[in-house]
């Protein structure tokens, strides 16, 4: 193997690494932006895991949290475990992309709810 061949082989992982690093920086920027938005809201409380919790009903909450470096928006039922709220099995977690898609369709969803109620 000539030195020029081995140099080109080592460039490929570097390029992939740069793309991954760039993507990670973008995701971190989005996380910081979403966290700042959540912190501005006065109706949220901090959950046991540091997540922002918004009470929807007695034991149902919307949450904004971070999981594996990604911001997630969840709606989940909680239960009382000896005076501490714990997340139950019933619920859903949305990525930022899914959350944005849901918000963009909110007017149509509201119309459908009005038709059926």
TrEMBL record:
InterPro entries: PC4_C, ssDNA-bd_transcriptional_reg, Sub1/Tcp4-like. One of its GO terms (cellular component) is nucleus. It is found in: Nucleus. Residues 21-40 have a biased composition (Basic and acidic residues). Residues 54-104 form the Transcriptional coactivator p15 (PC4) C-terminal domain. SUPFAM superfamilies: ssDNA-binding transcriptional regulator domain (SSF54447). Residues 1-54 are annotated as: Disordered. Residues 1-10 have a biased composition (Acidic residues). One of its GO terms (biological process) is positive regulation of transcription initiation by RNA polymerase II. One of its GO terms (molecular function) is DNA binding. Keywords: DNA-binding, Nucleus, Transcription, Transcription regulation. Belongs to the transcriptional coactivator PC4 family. This is Transcriptional coactivator p15 (PC4) C-terminal domain-containing protein.
């Amino acid at each position: 193997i000539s030195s020029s061949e081995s140099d080109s082989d080592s460039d490929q992982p570097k390029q992939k690494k740069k793309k991954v690093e760039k993507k990670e920086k973008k995701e971190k920027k989005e996380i910081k932006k979403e966290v700042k938005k959540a912190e501005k809201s006065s109706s949220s409380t901090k959950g046991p895991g540091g997540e922002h919790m918004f009470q929807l009903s007695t034991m149902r909450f919307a949450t904004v949290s971070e999981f594996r470096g990604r911001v997630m928006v969840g709606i989940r039922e909680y239960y009382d475990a000896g005076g501490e709220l714990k997340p139950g099995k019933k619920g859903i977690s949305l990525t930022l992309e899914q959350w944005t898609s849901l918000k963009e369709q909110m007017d149509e969803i509201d119309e459908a709810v009005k038709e059926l109620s």
